[in-house]
Specification:
- The longest helix has 21 residues.
- The chain has 10 helices and 7 strands.
- The radius of gyration is 18 Å and the shape is globular.
- Strands 3-2-1-4-5-7-6 form a 7-stranded mixed beta sheet, with helices on both faces.
- 47% of the residues lie in helices and 20% in strands.
- It has a single domain, classed as Rossmann fold, CATH 3.40.50.
- The mean pLDDT is 90.
- The chain is of the alpha/beta class.
Length: 244
């Protein structure tokens, strides 16, 4: 059922990605990652490749791995553009993908993924272990009191002329996406039986989950027209011990 819903969601997901607040959120995530040539970058839940496209434009010399459970999302990602040869997309479960990958990545990113995780603390711990010491994670995730109309209104106000008309004509698609999103949230809530899984919806709880996972939060601020949080954390480098 989960895969079916995500594959259906892929059909209208691009309409959400085109929203101005979503575009701004992707820009913030890409900027916070600060990628450089030669870095290994993992995008957890890469969707249709919107963030990957920004990273490919900014720095095509990175070694990028995108993983997602939805084959429909990945099919759209692969068709999105001609990707650099060091960019790869893989279908699969995120926890399984991260198993055994220790000290591998310089950067890990996710956009609207943490709320889908059955056990966010466990997955975040796997992400932290997957980072090289001193590596960075950047996550964008919605708040509990998410108000979709704020995002849509911000998008409409930012459009001009024909673009605004096209945005208005696309509202039925957004409605369908919203209904599917509600089903996915409900499914996620029913599947999230892990202790403190509900913390992911709140700033303090999200920070606590990241700390418990072994990472060190550096920045937490609103994004996505104030309806989501942008969290930047790093994996502390080991301190050199010695006697004086």
């Amino acid at each position: 059922m989960s895969h079916l819903l995500w594959n259906l969601y892929a059909v209208c997901y691009e309409r959400i990605v085109r929203l101005l607040p979503y575009q701004e959120m992707l820009d913030e995530v890409a900027s916070a990652l600060e990628v450089a040539p030669g870095m290994r970058v993992l995008e957890a839940g890469c969707g249709t490749g919107a963030l990957a496209e920004r990273l490919a434009r900014a720095c095509p010399q990175i070694d990028y791995a995108g993983v997602d459970m939805s084959e429909a999302m990945l099919a759209r990602a692969r068709r999105r553009r001609a990707w650099p040869p060091t960019f790869a997309f893989t279908a699969g479960n995120l926890d399984d993908f991260l198993t055994g990958q220790v000290d591998r990545y310089d950067r890990i990113a996710s956009v609207n993924v943490i709320w889908t995780l059955p056990d966010p603390r466990n997955t975040l711990a796997r992400m932290t272990a997957g980072l090289r010491p001193g590596g960075r994670m950047v996550h964008a995730t919605p708040r509990f009191a998410f108000r979709a109309w704020v995002v849509v209104w911000r998008d409409l106000r930012g459009q001009k002329g024909w673009r605004r008309l096209r945005a208005l004509l696309g509202l039925p698609v957004l409605l369908c996406a919203g209904l599917l999103n509600l089903l996915l949230v409900l499914q996620s809530a029913l599947a999230a039986r892990a202790p403190r899984a509900g913390q992911r919806w709140h700033e303090d709880g999200l920070v606590a989950l990241v700390r418990d996972a072994g990472a060190r939060p550096q920045v937490v601020r609103p994004c996505y027209a104030g309806q989501a949080l942008l969290l930047v954390a790093d994996r502390p480098a080991p301190t050199s011990g010695g006697t004086g």
